[in-house]
């Protein structure tokens, strides 16, 4: 069941008469841009229930002994496929609360899938390759985005009012690796914010 | 004389010996003791330093052993933790918070690995498992260390050191750590201690409890520190260990008792001390022996030197070739040299340096010996005196005179081979001849003959004769002194008899000599007692027909002897030198008397050769003239021809200096003495006095008249006046007048008269002469 994203967006954003957007830039304490941080926004006016999707689609590939992408955003209820492009076999597992599962030893060009029914962060590992690490962010809001290499994420179509903005990053030392803030959203136009995350130094 | 002790037992010898030996023993003993002590001290220091070095090395080794053991055990824990932490099931349990599963897993491992602590520390700080005896602070430190990323090290929990290993648990993100820990109990540390050779009492202590001077500075281990505890010196060092987490650092403290370490070396030091003392004893014995061998020859030398100083001839044996031997041989050389020199000195004391004959001293000894020997036949002493030796010395010089004396000595020895020949001094010799059948007369003749032969000395042919006086022992003297004196008297007489003769001593000679001696004493007194008196005899000028001068004549009126003739006492005065004060007195008296006379009358004064040769004659004359006020031309000095026998040059020089005073000079006794006319040419005498012997012969002998004529002719030609002495008759006067004599003197006119009678006589003679002229 694949829904084209632009269609979904159009559908979602068409409801409010006017809309504002949020331009976030995520940096660490040293001012360096932080990629692969997930921003989720919950406007005060609420979020539509279901019927939205994200780009890229719900596919977590194992390629070169790594999860690609490293961080994947999917809506609640999405079924994520796990194609193995490596020559070796993988044993994907998750001990995360929203979804505890194991996909045991599947080989090259085999695809398994799993349906995520609860919002939250699912940390993926491979029991064979300890160094493999990936995250699936299961969200219940269409206003979610992942920072690019420049640490930027932009979310548009937000209604006037305040919005709760949550920034997640796997290295963030906080409850659920999240940092939350409330941001006023203008009727139209963009509000720009820079969020600084205190991340442990890379070792 | 002091009894001499044999030298080894003499007291001062022992004193010297002990002094030198004691000195040497003290000196070398002190040196050796110092060396031994120094070596002992040095050894002790070296041992101490070595012990310290060893301990420090042990500490380094022990510390590294500790590090390695600790690291090994911790690594073991760490690996076990990693195994558990990566176990899928454990991870699942840890990720899902399945505490019972986690605890059971930890329990089973703790039992298997004998762990004191096994726990899972979640990232949020929740601890699952057995933290056992954890204080909240320990827990904080643990979590802080885990967050720092510490995985292994030593930490102090509940006051006890622990080896701690932490392994992260990833699911796949880090969700916590498996932490294993084991007590570092005493047993572990003991095991460590057993691995090193020294028991270093290792213990782990918090940095804060370690004294600051032991703490590592800038990552470097501090040097060991010496501490004293319970009287023991202890070397302590603190070394860093791998800490678990940066808080609450721990140090490994190692210590070692230096006192105990040194204890093990004590036997070495004791044996060193004992052997040092033994060595000292041996060295002292050696020094005593060496000093004995040194002092013994020195003492022998000292004793020998003392005996040499007492006059003995002692030599010491030369036993070695070293410095002592050299000293001994030098000593012997010195002793021999001293003996040689003593012989030389003795020879010089008893012998004449020039001829090598015995001297007067030895002659006296020989005479004494001869008297002592009591030879029945007796002996004779010959005293010899060379004739005219003085003129040889004066004319040919002393070197020639000395050479002549040597020749004379040789001839005397040859002529009298059995005699004892001695030189008494100058040209005097003496010979002792034993009476052995040859008569003294023969000996004397032989001696005279031996010296009568001309001598050839230094290219000169010299003729000297000798006069000999002989005294016979024992009849001519009871000892050597008397014999010598008597031989001398005989010699004196022989010389008076004429040169080249000999005389035996006769008792009368002794009486004469004593008479001379007594007269000499009286003559000394005569001048002081005013016993001398001047008489004046007039000289009558034949052309002027009046008295022209008076000759001053000395008379001695002795209180007991009466009038003593000048013939008797003038020679004595000349011999004794009394002629000098007497002559001075005569000059003064004559000048004083003449000052009262008319100006045309001069005074004539006889000057003895002794006076003439004295350096003071000129000043005496000047004084006499000055004190009397007599004009110099009124003083006429009469000198005899004998002056010309000796040094003519000096005589002429003296005559000219007298003439320079302005006085007149007359030649007395002309024609009897030295018959050379050359000096008449050399010095312009004012007057010749023709000797009375010519006058006495005048009437009996025509030749005498011719002689007078010749003399007056010669004098006239040279412009010299003539005076005839001893004129007693009118006939003599007539002849003299006829022969052109200027003046006459004699009894015909007047005997010598006293000074007070001079004035009357002048008057009377002037009258008498007028009568003569008239006749």
Automatic annotation (TrEMBL), chain A:
Q: Which UniProt keywords apply?
A: Signal
Entry keyword annotation includes Signal: yes
Query: Which Gene3D superfamilies has this protein been placed in?
Result: Cupredoxins - blue copper proteins (2.60.40.420)
Against InterPro entries, the record matches this protein to:
Cupredoxin (IPR008972), ET_Amicyanin (IPR052721)
Give the domain of life: Bacteria
Q: Identify the SUPFAM superfamilies for this entry.
A: Cupredoxins
Which residues does UniProt assign to the signal peptide? 1-19
What is the name listed in the Swiss-Prot or TrEMBL entry for this protein?
Answer: Methylamine utilization protein
- Species name: Sphingomonas natans
């Amino acid at each position: 069941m694949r829904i084209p994203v632009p269609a979904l967006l159009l559908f979602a954003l068409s409801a409010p008469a006017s809309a504002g957007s949020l331009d976030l830039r995520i940096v660490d304490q040293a001012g360096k841009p932080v990629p692969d941080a997930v921003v989720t926004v919950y406007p005060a006016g609420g979020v539509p229930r279901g019927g939205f999707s994200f780009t890229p689609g719900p596919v977590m590939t194992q390629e070169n002994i790594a999860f690609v992408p490293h961080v994947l955003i999917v809506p609640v209820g999405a079924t994520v496929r796990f194609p193995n492009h490596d020559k070796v076999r993988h044993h994907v597992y998750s001990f995360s609360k929203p979804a505890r599962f194991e996909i045991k030893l599947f080989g090259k060009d085999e695809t398994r899938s799993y349906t995520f029914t609860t919002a939250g962060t699912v940390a993926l590992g491979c029991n064979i390759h300890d160094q493999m690490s990936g995250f699936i962010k299961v969200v219940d809001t269409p206003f979610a985005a992942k920072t690019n290499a420049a640490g930027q994420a932009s979310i548009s179509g937000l209604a006037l009012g305040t919005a709760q903005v949550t920034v997640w990053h796997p290295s963030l030392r906080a409850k659920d690796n999240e940092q939350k803030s409330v941001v006023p959203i203008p009727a139209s136009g963009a509000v720009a914010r820079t969020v600084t995350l205190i991340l442990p130094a890379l070792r | 004389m002091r009894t001499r002790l044999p030298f080894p037992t003499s007291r001062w010898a022992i004193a010297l010996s002990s002094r030198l030996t004691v000195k040497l023993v003290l000196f070398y003993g002190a040196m050796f003791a110092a060396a031994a002590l120094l070596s002992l001290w040095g050894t002790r220091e070296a041992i101490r330093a070595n012990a310290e070095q060893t301990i420090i090395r042990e500490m380094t080794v022990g510390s590294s052993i500790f590090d390695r053991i600790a690291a090994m055990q911790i690594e073991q824990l760490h690996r076990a933790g990693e195994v558990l932490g990566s176990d899928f099931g454990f991870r699942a349990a840890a990720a899902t918070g399945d505490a019972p599963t986690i605890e059971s897993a930890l329990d089973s491992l703790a039992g298997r690995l004998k762990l004191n602590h096994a726990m899972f520390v979640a990232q949020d700080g929740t601890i699952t498992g057995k933290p056992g005896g954890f204080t909240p602070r320990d827990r904080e430190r643990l979590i802080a260390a885990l967050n720092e990323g510490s995985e292994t090290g030593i930490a102090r929990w509940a006051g006890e050191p622990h080896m701690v290993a932490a392994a992260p648990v990833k699911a796949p993100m880090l969700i916590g750590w498996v932490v294993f820990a084991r007590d570092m109990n005493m047993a572990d540390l003991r095991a460590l201690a057993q691995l090193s050779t020294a028991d270093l009492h290792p213990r782990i202590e918090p940095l804060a409890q370690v004294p600051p001077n032991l703490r590592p500075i800038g990552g470097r281990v501090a040097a060991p520190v010496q501490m004293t505890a319970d009287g023991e010196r202890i070397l302590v060092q603190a070394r860093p260990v791998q800490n678990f987490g940066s808080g609450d650092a721990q140090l490994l403290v190692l210590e070692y008792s230096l006192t105990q370490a040194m204890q093990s070396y004590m036997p070495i030091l004791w044996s060193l001390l004992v052997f040092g003392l033994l060595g000292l004893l041996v060295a002292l014995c050696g020094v005593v022996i060496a000093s004995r061998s040194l002092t013994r020859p020195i003492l022998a030398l000292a004793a020998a030197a003392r005996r040499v100083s007492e006059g003995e001839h002692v030599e010491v044996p030369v036993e070695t070739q070293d410095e002592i031997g050299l000293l001994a041989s030098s000593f012997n050389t010195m002793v021999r040299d001293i003996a040689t020199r003593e012989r030389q000195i003795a020879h010089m004391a008893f012998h004449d340096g020039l001829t090598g004959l015995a001297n007067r001293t030895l002659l006296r000894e020989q005479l004494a010996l001869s008297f002592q020997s009591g030879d029945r036949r007796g002996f004779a002493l010959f005293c010899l005196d060379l004739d005219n030796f003085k003129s040889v010395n004066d004319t040919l010089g002393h070197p020639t005179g000395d050479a002549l004396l040597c020749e004379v000595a040789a001839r005397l020895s040859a002529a009298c081979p059995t005699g004892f020949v001695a030189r008494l001094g100058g040209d005097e010799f003496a010979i002792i001849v034993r009476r052995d059948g040859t008569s003294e007369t023969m000996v004397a003749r032989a001696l005279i003959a031996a010296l009568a032969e001309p001598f050839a000395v230094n290219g000169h042919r010299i003729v000297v004769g000798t006069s000999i006086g002989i005294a016979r022992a024992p009849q001519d003297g009871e000892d050597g002194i008397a014999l010598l004196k008597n031989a001398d008297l005989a010699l004196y007489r022989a010389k008076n008899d004429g040169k080249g003769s000999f005389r035996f001593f006769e008792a009368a000679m002794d009486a004469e000599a004593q008479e001379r001696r007594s007269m000499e004493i009286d003559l000394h007194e005569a001048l002081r007692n005013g016993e001398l008196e001047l008489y004046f005899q007039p000289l009558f000028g034949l052309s002027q027909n009046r008295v022209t001068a008076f000759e001053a004549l000395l008379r001695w009126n002795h209180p007991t002897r009466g009038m003593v003739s000048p013939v008797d006492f003038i020679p004595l005065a000349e011999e004794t030198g009394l002629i000098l004060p007497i002559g001075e007195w005569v000059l003064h008296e004559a000048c004083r008397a003449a000052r009262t006379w008319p100006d045309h009358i001069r005074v004539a004064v006889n000057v003895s050769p002794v006076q003439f040769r004295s350096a003071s004659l000129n000043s005496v004359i000047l004084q006499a003239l000055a004190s009397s006020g007599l004009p110099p031309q009124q003083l006429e000095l009469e000198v005899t021809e004998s002056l010309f026998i000796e040094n003519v040059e000096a005589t002429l020089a003296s005559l000219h200096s007298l003439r320079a005073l302005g006085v007149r000079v007359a030649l007395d006794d002309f024609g009897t003495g030295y018959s050379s006319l050359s000096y008449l040419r050399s010095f312009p005498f004012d007057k010749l006095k023709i000797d009375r012997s010519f006058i006495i012969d005048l009437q009996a002998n025509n030749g005498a008249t011719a002689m007078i004529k010749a003399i007056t002719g010669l004098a006239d030609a040279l412009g010299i006046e003539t005076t005839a002495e001893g004129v007693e008759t009118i006939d003599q006067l007539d002849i003299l007048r006829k022969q052109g004599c200027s003046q006459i003197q004699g009894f015909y006119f007047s005997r010598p008269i006293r000074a007070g009678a001079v004035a009357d006589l002048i008057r009377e003679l002037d009258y008498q002469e007028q009568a003569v002229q008239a006749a």
